[in-house]
Amino acid sequence: MLINLKRILKFGWHSFSRNKGLGFQVIFIMATAVFFILVFFLGRGVGRTLFDEMGRKVDISVYFKSETTEQEILEVKNRLSSLSDKIKTIEYVSKERALTIFKAEHQSDDLYLNALEEAKENPLLPSLNIYSDDPNYYAKISGFLKEPPTNDIVEKISYEQPKNRQAIETLAAIAKGIKIVGIIIVGLLGLLVIIITSNIIKLTFIVLKDEISTMKLVGASDWFVRGPFMIQTFFYGLFAVIIVDTFSGILLYFISGKAIHWFSEFNIFSYFFSNLAVIFGFQLGFVALLGAVSTLLVMRKHLKA
């Protein structure tokens, strides 16, 4: 068994190194598929970062009536925290802190500052700023806040204002669009697999026909015949992955400094490098499966002859 395995590996390597013309063509085709997989991973990382950045800028605020105590507000905060794990953070802003923030934001606006000085009491309301992972969940949060007993102490909810609701719904639409684009990319990648497989079959058929017939004549088993050619296609895939990832890594290293400003401080090279093992494994598994399937399909007809 071990001797046969060594022979298969040896014959596979010899076939790989001997058929250079076929090898370059197959490596190029596999490299195309590998490159699209890499683009998919990088696009997924960039998309997540941009979406999270947008999500941090969209939240809902619930303002409580002036006479509401801090304890009552914190009780609402605790109930919201246990409502769902989709809620990332809840920030409590007291009346005093709200006043401090307001003054800092309008320090050059005399109209607002004069109005505050004329007011005998702090006119601002205490609030909770709520951030969720899922923009679609804001509607449910708003509905929860309008239910008793919470609604008795709530003055207003920012989600109910048309502009805020429109911003949140736009973000939700973008999230849905990203999912649709992901599905389309996966579909196109599947179509690419079919095209690549058929091309590899056509390419390998030219070389394999005579070699398969010769090996069958000397009494080789079907798996011993298949083995070297499966190893051969694995080497094609391995070289395709190494070539694509090496050149992509070099390119990303040089452009990441400029691209970081385009992607909201997302370092595309760091993302590539930190996920290189996952990307490499997925790419190698993909081309290994592709090569095995194409080889089996090519040899299926001839092994029966």
Q: Approximately how much helix is present in the residues?
A: over 70%
How does the overall form come out from the CA principal axes? elongated
Estimate nothing, just give the exact number of structural domains.
2
From the alpha carbons, calculate the radius of gyration and give it in angstroms.
31 Å
Task: Please describe the biggest sheet, giving its number of strands, its sense, and whether it closes into a barrel.
Answer: 4 strands, antiparallel
Number of helices: 10
What structural class do the secondary elements suggest? alpha+beta
Task: Name the average pLDDT.
Answer: 75
Distance between the termini: 26 Å
Question: What labels would you give this structure?
Answer:
305 residues; alpha+beta; Alpha-Beta Plaits; 2 domains; 7% strand; elongated
Quick structural gist:
With 305 residues, this protein is of the alpha+beta class.
What does this structure look like?
With 305 residues, the protein is an alpha+beta fold. It has two domains: 2-54 and 177-304, no CATH class; 58-171, 2-Layer Sandwich (Alpha-Beta Plaits), CATH 3.30.70.3040. The two termini are 26 Å apart. It contains ten helices and four strands, in the order ααβαβααβαβαααα. Helix 1 (2-18) packs across helix 8 (222-259), helix 2 (20-56) crosses helix 8 and helix 8 packs antiparallel against helix 10 (276-304). It has a four-stranded antiparallel beta sheet with strand order 2-3-1-4. Helices cover 73% and strands 7% of the residues. The model has no long low-confidence stretch (mean pLDDT 75).
